[in-house]
Amino acid sequence: MKYFILCISFIFSTQLSAQSYNGPESVDYHPLTDTYFISNSSAGEILTLNSDGILSIFASNMSGPHGLEVVGDTLFVCSGSNLRAFDINTGNQVVNYPVGAQFLNGITHKGKDVYVTDFSAKKIYRYNIASGNHNLYTSVNRTPNGILYDDINDRLMVVCWGNNAPIYEINLSDSVSNIVINTKLGNIDGIGMNDCGEFFISAWSTNSIHKFSSDFSFNENIQSGMSSPADVYYNRFNDILAVPNSSSNTVDFIQLENCNPVSILKNELSHLLVFPNPTKSGNSLTFSEKVYSAVWINQMGQTVSEQSLSGTYNISVPSLKSGVYFLTINAQNTYKIFITK
After folding, report:
1. Percentage helix, strand, coil, to 5, in the chain?
2. Residue 2 pLDDT greater than 80, yes or no
3. Domain residue ranges of the chain, discontinuous segments joined by +
4. Rounded mean pLDDT of 277-283?
5. What values do phi and psi take at 337, rounded to 5?
6. CATH number of this structure's domain 262-340
7. What sign for the dihedral angle of Cα 11, 33, 314, 282?
8. Which CATH superfamily is domain 4-259 in?
9. For position 162, what pLDDT does the model report?
10. What stretch of H or E contains 8?
């Protein structure tokens, strides 16, 4: 398998003169605007990188920032001991909430719940967007760093700092944490996941990106030569892994091969039009062909919904959790559909 690394500082060098990276720490992505958000922690800024390669300041004058998490059209930010949030469309701050933490670092979400790691206190907090309140969700014995919601197995994954750094899984039904593997790596910072449930972690001890199989039975170093790689982001829309290098003030975008969940190859996916994509449960999908049957398949290859229709260009998206699905229309054409909350 081949991996190709694309360095932003090279590809968009003519458009980075106005702004530059200064301690890039975390990356996230807003699919509806095709925009990356990067926390420029040494400058107290959040930057945006648009599809034209233009780097701009989105927000400034804050502690950190560290972890970033896009939730719909809102960007949540770990900023010192506070959780902040900004409206992506207007740039206005909409949340500045004191969690009472020592050092908020990693962040993820499931639905209306936002989970953040307290690096210094070895705690994980949960903030509910609807109520505007938080609670101590759980504590771990090692230093928690990056955190990820695993939507395939409905659990939280937490990577840790220190020697022989463990990876925890946290059961969302009871908040109980268990170590799934002691990695033998040191100072793990970030974690991302692809459509097949394979994990990508950044380790400072090797200055590399390591790929773990979904059951952690196998791992490999897929990209070395990083420079203190921080909170990585795996873009499941295009299989690009974004790696902020906090020491060299660069952000690398690594193009990876699609993992082909449920054995559907890229060249087997339909090139006919469907929109909007991404979409939400309950929304209407519009196709450029008449639809008589629709079969929804999740990343594990399981059929989760079947629809029979009378030949229409519009179908309703069934009630499914957020994630990536393969939708087969008329037992012939297959589309890759992204469902968000």
Report:
1. 5, 55, 40
2. no
3. 4-259, 262-340
4. 84
5. -115, 135
6. 2.60.40.10
7. positive
8. TolB, C-terminal domain (2.120.10.30)
9. 97
10. helix 8-11
